[in-house]
Design a protein that fits this description.
The protein is mostly helical. The chain has one domain. Helix content is about 75%, strand content about 0%. The longest helix is centred in the C-terminal third of the chain and has 18 residues.
């Protein structure tokens, strides 16, 4: 999955109230199934090409998901060890 595809998922979560309610579950699933998901997310939120409000919203959404999964997700463990 590319950074552009991940960005599209974030935008869908941000713009759709039903998806926003399920955002944590959606992102936890992606963390555990998409290689380098956290790394690609960091690339997205540090991009100079993306508008600031979108980057801020993505940061708010992913912050707690990463915090809750940082030490327990095998996929994130692999990213920490890179």
């Amino acid at each position: 999955m590319s950074a552009e595809e991940i960005l599209a998922i974030y935008k869908e979560i941000i713009q759709n109230p039903d998806k926003l309610k399920e955002g944590k579950q959606i992102l936890e699933k992606l963390i555990n199934t998409v290689p380098q998901f956290a790394t690609l997310t960091c690339r997205i939120i540090t991009s100079t090409e993306l508008d600031s409000p979108t980057k801020k919203n993505i940061s708010y959404i992913i912050k707690n998901v990463l915090k809750d999964n940082w030490m327990v997700s095998p996929a994130l463990e692999q990213e920490r060890n890179v």
